[in-house]
Amino acid sequence: MIRFLLDGETIEVDEPDSAATVLEYLRYALRRTGTKEGCAEGDCGACTVLLGELAGDRLEWRAVNACILFLPMIDGKALKTVESLGGTHPVQREMVERHGSQCGFCTPGFVMSLYGRSIGAAGTRGVPVGDVIAGNLCRCTGYGPILAAGEAVPMAVEQDDGTAAALRAIEPAYGHPSTADELADLLLANPETRIVAGATDVGLWVTKQLRDLGPTVFIGDIAELRQIEEGPEALTLGAAVRYSEAREALARLHPDLGELVRRIGGVQVRNAGTIGGNIANGSPIGDMPPALIALDAELTLRRGAERRTIALEDFFLGYGKQDRAPGEFVERVRIPRPSRDMLVRVVKLSKRFDSDISGVCGAFALRIADGVVTAARVAFGGMAGIPARAPGCEAALTGKAWTEANVEAAAQALARDYTPLDDLRGSAAYRRKVAANLLRRIWAEQHEPVSVLHG
After folding, report:
1. pLDDT at residue 331 tops 90
2. What are the two backbone dihedrals, phi and then psi, of residue 134, each rounded to the nearest 5 degrees?
3. pLDDT band at 268 (very low <50, low <70, confident <90, very high)
4. Whole-number Å distance between alpha carbons of 131 and 74
5. Which residues pair with 216 in a beta bridge?
6. pLDDT tens digits, 19-43
7. What is the DSSP letter of 42?
8. E-state strands within 1-138
9. CA distance linking residue 27 with residue 37, whole number of Å
10. Average pLDDT over every residue of 254-279
């Protein structure tokens, strides 16, 4: 059984299918058809709903994609759909008055994203309207009026209507592990169990590949895995920390990391996707691993009561293969704080700026002293079957003067470090060329006038 709040009413679902989506339940069981299915993969935002949960003494809302959110993941939480707004909310009025709705199919999703911004929901505070709706796609090219509608509604903290107190009274019923110890015991006894954190990737296994996930365990409510620790030497993130929660801490570590997070999906994806999930799924085009590898991040893995710490780069063994034993799970990642003499650059290249998957993601951490590169860590995603370092490039830089000629030699070495594939996100030739150009660009940024670089 699961229990959740919907507009103040407690909804109970007996024996829910662990792979049933919130979108399916809203449309077919509750007949809340305002929530639409556009893509069933978390890209278009037509299914956007707001999910509320307690954060200490306060209630925090976050926009999420209902199409890839599994029903058990809302156990013990509050839910709002477009019907919850009643048709009279200022966002809805502005959308009507400014002609923000054309065919209307995507409109409920836009309304919910803008409503989330209007109440200061997670990932929206101090964020421009354009970034808030980057995870919503309009098929009628109506963005101008939608942006205007969003700008017209001021941001304000929503007054609690009693939802927080009602949530405290709800006893979660599904049986998620509530502690890391419980999770460790469960996985030790049942190592075949599928771990689900934000479901931004696993959700597509169901909606697009029609896969049977088998036994699953949902870890999003485990407090120990949601911790963020900022220290003088390193930033440590629990595996279940969501990207929207980690963004500010990562930006303080280095601004390029904050900008990279800004381009990981839309707000809805960042409100669900987790640091550990992005690592554990082993995708060769995951955005964050190349940056963390360049910064010499360490991964803590846990199996039962035993823990081991490995370099993040050693976790990825080959395409679809990671150094993780049965029953073992990612517990946290530790990212050393870059020193003041370290030059750090992280660049994501994709066909579409917002809410798109990387074609190539390059990360560079260079220590330069008196014009000499004393240490170099260079890592790329999208260039191989795993996110990986560029040993030839690093060797061509380390111990050499930071000159254009030596940078050119290192850029040429990249072609020997990787054997990229041709796919719909880019040809192998394109990937080799842009990878080399990213290194050339770093040198040029320091030595060429801005007018030359930017025209």
Report:
1. yes
2. -65, -25
3. very high
4. 25
5. 194
6. 999 999 999 999 999 999 999 999 9
7. S
8. 2-6, 9-13, 48-55, 58-65, 78-80
9. 9
10. 96
Superfamily of 2-169 according to CATH = Beta-grasp domain (3.10.20.30)
Residue 454 predicted with pLDDT over 60: no
pLDDT at 163 over 50: yes
Question: By three-state DSSP, how is residue 435 classified?
Answer: helix
The residue type at 250: L
Q: Is the pLDDT confidence value at 453 over 70? A: no
Tokens of 373: 């590169």
Per-domain residue ranges of the chain: 2-169, 180-336, 342-454
Strands 48-55 and 342-349: unpaired
* Neighbour tally for 349: CB within 10 Å: 20
Which residue in the block uniquely carries the two structure tokens 């990932």? 123
Q: Is 72 exposed, middle or buried (0-12, 13-18, 19+ CB in 10 A)?
A: buried
CATH 1.10.150.120 corresponds to the domain 180-336:
no
Residue with the two structure tokens 């690093």 = 394
Return the H-helix or E-strand segment holding 149.
helix 143-152
Under the banding of pLDDT at 50, 70 and 90, the label for residue 451 is: very low
Q: What fold characterizes domain 342-454?
A: Enolase-like; domain 1 (3.30.390)
User: Angle 423-425-431 (CA atoms, 0-180°, nearest 5)?
Assistant: 85
Question: Cα separation of 231 and 353, whole Å?
Answer: 32
Closest by Cα among 180, 217, 171, 178 to 19: 217
Task: Compute the distance between CA of residue 224 and CA of residue 245 in angstroms, rounded to an integer.
Answer: 14
The answer to whether the beta carbons of residues 68 and 153 sit under 8 Å apart is no
